[in-house]
């Protein structure tokens, strides 16, 4: 017998004079938002967080139950919408993925009553319900019926795992059940299990969401992990998530620099940035001054950083925005000069970094916008992370003896392996 949540129901009367549960909920949320958290100590904060997570789980379950009722009664037609998913997208600005998840969760809770009870008690989250959704898809319910599977027993077993085990263990349990349900099924086409979508935000940042099959996911993780583990300089305080993000960008840099990618729109793929000449020459940050090829908005500072080592095409824009003149693409550091700099520097020259040359840009020590020459003496290898640092206040300088030195924005030098004396 499963005993992780109470099987009792209570009639509730709010003492604040609310006439409906929704009014009580609104009042409670307003009261919570007005509480002062600054004076709370650790245990109180943790207790409050736990209570809110449980309350959120219960509220998510109620939303899913209501959405399911709307689906069954075609309630969306009242507002001229064909489905609850489209109503959620249009009236509450939910993403397509989130609206679909709510609809699936409503169906799942209807078909798995023990899971519904656990969700209603706040013992499982909406994410957990989503993990169990494939169990009650039409195809898998038909397979279970054909094999005489007791779905009530499956409901109890999987709900117990959901309440007592880790999220990873739950996914494994669901995967094991589905595999046993169709042991002789045809091997799915991995390409049918892959998807990737991008969203560009107003500040130029890009969010992406995707799904990969097991083998594709393994390849992806192996490639990112290899760069993560190879680029861990001393004193690196980045979180694992940040390091993974940097590694993914480094993979793209490597692929773009290799020249082996397929031709895109008649040209080799490249990063495209459009910016007015005045903004490019201005030394200020210049927020929102440049636009990328895929529609992102970036600052003039980022545009100058991208222009430090790359292809620059001159396009003169007229007063009404019409292109007047097209110049030839100019490679700032030609291949033979880059090779010479690679031989000389061998790796990123920023103090304490040994990122290999093929991860690095060639940085103009004195920017070409400021009159710096494209020559051996004015070039330096910098990995993406430290190239960004140098364009945000850090400084590198090559000494007459060939050593590179690095200074922080406050003028102090970054010293690695400083010598120390042992007193007698």
TrEMBL record:
Limits of the HNH nuclease domain: 336-388
Residue ranges that the Swiss-Prot or TrEMBL entry lists as coiled coil: none
Domain of life, source organism: Bacteria
Transmembrane segments: none
Record GO terms (molecular function): endonuclease activity; nucleic acid binding; zinc ion binding
UniProt xrefs under Pfam families: DUF222, HNH
UniProt record similarity statement: Belongs to the Rv1128c/1148c/1588c/1702c/1945/3466 family.
Protein known as: HNH nuclease domain-containing protein
Species per Swiss-Prot/TrEMBL record: Blastococcus aggregatus
Lineage start: Bacteria, Bacillati, Actinomycetota, Actinomycetes, Geodermatophilales
């Amino acid at each position: 017998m499963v005993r992780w949540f109470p099987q009792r129901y209570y009639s509730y009367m709010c003492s604040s004079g609310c006439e409906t549960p929704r009014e009580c909920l609104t009042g409670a949320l307003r009261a919570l938002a007005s509480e002062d958290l600054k004076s709370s100590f650790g245990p109180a904060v943790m207790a409050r967080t736990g209570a809110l997570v449980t309350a959120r789980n219960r509220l998510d379950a109620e939303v899913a139950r209501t959405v399911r009722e709307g689906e069954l009664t075609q309630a969306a037609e009242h507002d001229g919408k064909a489905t609850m998913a489209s109503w959620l997208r249009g009236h509450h600005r939910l993403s397509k993925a989130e609206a679909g998840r709510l609809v699936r969760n409503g169906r799942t809770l209807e078909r798995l009553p023990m899971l519904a009870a656990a969700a209603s008690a706040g013992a499982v989250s909406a994410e957990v319900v989503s993990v169990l959704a494939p169990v009650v898809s039409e195809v898998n319910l038909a397979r279970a019926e054909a094999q005489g599977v007791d779905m009530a027993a499956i409901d109890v077993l999987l709900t117990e795992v959901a309440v007592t085990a880790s999220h990873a263990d739950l996914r494994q349990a669901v995967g094991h059940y589905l595999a046993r349900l169709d042991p002789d099924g045809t091997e799915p086409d991995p390409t049918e299990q892959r998807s990737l979508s991008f969203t560009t935000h107003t500040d130029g940042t890009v969010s992406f969401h995707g799904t990969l099959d097991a083998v594709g996911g393994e390849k992806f993780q192996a490639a990112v992990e290899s760069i993560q583990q190879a680029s861990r300089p001393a004193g690196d305080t980045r979180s694992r998530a940040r390091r993974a993000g940097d590694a993914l960008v480094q993979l793209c840099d490597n692929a773009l620099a290799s020249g082996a990618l397929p031709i895109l729109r008649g040209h080799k793929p490249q990063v495209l940035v459009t910016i007015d000449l005045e903004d490019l020459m201005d030394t200020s940050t210049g927020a929102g001054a440049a636009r990328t090829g895929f529609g992102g908005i970036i600052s003039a500072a980022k545009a100058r950083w991208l222009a430090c080592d790359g292809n620059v095409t001159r396009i003169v824009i007229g007063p009404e925005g019409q292109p007047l003149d097209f110049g030839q693409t100019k490679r700032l550091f030609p291949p033979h000069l880059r090779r010479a700099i690679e031989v000389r520097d061998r790796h990123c020259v920023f103090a304490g970094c040994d990122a290999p040359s093929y991860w690095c840009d060639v940085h103009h020590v004195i920017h070409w916008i400021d009159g710096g020459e494209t020559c051996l003496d004015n070039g330096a290898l910098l990995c993406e992370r430290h190239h960004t640092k140098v364009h945000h206040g850090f400084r590198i300088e090559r000494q007459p003896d060939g050593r590179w030195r690095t200074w922080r924005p406050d003028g102090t030098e970054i010293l690695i392996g400083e010598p120390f004396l042992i007193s007698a």
